[in-house]
Amino acid sequence: MIFTYNKEYVGDVLMIVVSDSKNEALEVERKGNVARVFQVDNQETVAWNIFQVSSLVDITGRGQVFLTDQEVEALNQELQKEGFAEQLVNDKTPKFVVGEILDVLVHPDSDHLHICQVKIAEDKVVQIVAGAPNVVQGLKTIVALPGAMMPSGSLIFPGELRGEKSFGMMCSPRELQLPNAPQKRGIIELGSDEVVGTPFDPAKHWQG
């Protein structure tokens, strides 16, 4: 779940992205200051817009913002007041973490993509399809997990690349808009002593 806010350009509206719309047909149901965006075919909620949100919580940031559990509870009370049964869940787990490439296979339907098994926690390995030229077994890098918002504003969701499932993205310095990032393709290369699952810290993980 991603919270975004830009009062200057959008107005006093908190936009909450719940899931990938997958380019499906969408409809909007609005009650009071709450609008629910959902897929037509399966009625699944993909986003919420909460208007006049400053009357409920105090948001000072711009772009992706992070709310406390108490602030999310205030939003849930507003949803309930307007007659919506769903609840927002405040997911505060890190979305950019140190990962380690355990295995690399050439994509069967591409001359530049690789299918990688990437360890993102002590007990979790995910598949990520990557096109970076420096992908190699044993490399530690920064992984954007589903639910992450990139500095460009793009969102990371589970998907497929040429028929192969992918559950995140291994990041280049340029994609993370790091200072003095090389303007070329290639994911971040971390030292072998970095601990898998550690949240991304630009001050620690980038010396560009």
UniProtKB/TrEMBL annotation:
Keywords: RNA-binding, tRNA-binding. This is tRNA-binding protein. The keyword RNA-binding applies. Residues 90-201 form the TRNA-binding domain. Coiled coil: none annotated. One of its GO terms (molecular function) is tRNA binding.
